[in-house]
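Notes to self after the Tuesday call (sharing in case useful).
The group wants a holo model before anyone commits to mutagenesis around the pocket. I volunteered. Ligand is XIL. Logging inputs and output together so the record is complete.
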Amino acid sequence: MRRKALLSMASAASVLLCGATALYATGALGDSSGNSSRTDLLSGQDWSHLAGAKVSNDGIGVNGLGRRIVQQDGSGGQANPPVNLSGPRLRVKGSFSVTATMAGVGSTDGYLHLYDSAPVVYDEWRQEPPGLRLGVEGSRVRVDVWDGRSDTARTTKRFGTGLSDTVTLTATVTGTTIKIRANSADLGTVPAQGILDSGTVLFGLDGTTGRPWTLKSLTAQALNGTALRIDQAPSPTVEHTDGTLRTTAAGLTRPFGIGTALASGPLLTDTVYRTTAATQFSMITPENDFKPQFLHPQPDTYAFDEGDALVRFAQANNIRVHAHTLVWHEALPAWMRALKTPDAVEKAMVDHVNTVAGHYRGKVTEWDVVNEPLSDEDADYTNGNRGLRAGRNPWFQALGEQYIDLAFTTAHRADPDADLYLNEYGAEEDGERWEALLALAQRLKARGVPIDGIGFQNHEYEKGDRTAAETFRRHVRKLASIGLKARISEMDVILGEGESQDVQVRQFVGKLDVCVEEPNCTTFGLWGFTDRYGSTSGVGEYPLPTGNALPWDEDLRPKKVYSALLERLRG
Ligand code: XIL
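Result:
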């Protein structure tokens, strides 16, 4: 497979939010109108793991991260403001109000975001869930309403004037309208359109980059006899289950990792996703949360919160983390791509690798240090680039092949105990990509670069991408002969028109066989495990399309390929 393609498959998916423990309940008590007393959403709740937020006695300081999602070619920049996935969720069916007191606004912009579910976040797109954003922009109140059918807000309204310093905003959600108040004055309404009907509200905070504001208080109130309660995020620890992929693999003569990519959104909001991940897998790869555009949004700003949540989950369930990825030409924040001189590019890369690998030192077992260094352009295989990607790759453009050496030596210094991998796609089969990859690996070894292994992504996006297990086995053996480990890092198999699940069974089990039998294969890893949220489902579509490429279906039920994998591990 040469070029990356993301297919789009239409079919509806519903995002479920379920399963957290209740902290306390209120609701029935209240005044004669049937309204409950106000419930505090700050004290006793976790706001310390919200990216960009700093909890103090004064309230919650909010510094806008300016976090944006770029297209594969580096263009665009969809806003990706942080969601407090580790924090409180309001459970309410019916009318309610939320009141926020914001200090320090006026001279800076501040926003409170209410979501009815966690956004599904891809590398180049965030599926914006139904929700409401309430804030002070300039000296006015700004309200945006997303209806779950588009990236852009369906309604944007500005109200009032002359607001500054400390502003108390209330949104009252009743049936078809949301009433907006500022400092006790009614400002008007926006249409509700059922945006907060799921029964759950998650919260997010955002603002201007570098000019923080403070959230002084945040409360919710149930109206007209509605019941309301606040749940905390679920505990990361999941009860152990026997007879799963991970427990069966652990019984092999030479155990190896059973891996999956994992995303923080579903992990912290979907109980079945979380339980399946913990019970079935012994190794996880952060799907997107460790990529530079997510954790390094500004030159001097890192935001490790979502990544840290994945690590906490792994630690709580005795799962190893294969971290992904330090140096890649995609998913870069705009500032990284805008650097002008080779020196600036080199410095940014070294600082990034040092800081990120340093932050996760001792918490992850492996890194994809360099991702996808091979080119998609035929010319790069004959023009002296030795098959390395030059176009849109700022690292190669600034440093040539040496960028790979530098990335590995820097990562090794920052985390000497981690196994360091180079990860690539389309090299499972014979051909110029494999030859270029092997030659590169040989050069790196000859130069004494601290590389431990090669990851084979094994994406099969179309019928033509099917590869033979025996060819792959030869590649794995060849790497063993030069002292390198190998892993299947991102396997998924999209079924084409007319193909049955037997095709998946053959592909997945064929590759698993190789991993069981070749002593230098360290992990059999999937790129996600359920068709509900997959990178192979589709980008930019509402409702979120489901895929067909993975062993669990969109309802998190195991498919034929799951049973076949389990069977193979049982021997
Ligand atoms: C994927 C992400 O999972 C998606 O969210 C995104 O839409 C496309 O990229 N190779 C890699 C992964 O190394 O990081 C990519 O992840 C898939 C291809």
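Two things stood out.
Residues 122-124, 287-288, 371, 423, 457, 490, 535, 539 surround XIL (CB under 6 Å).
Residues 257-570 form a domain with the TIM Barrel fold (CATH 3.20.20.80).
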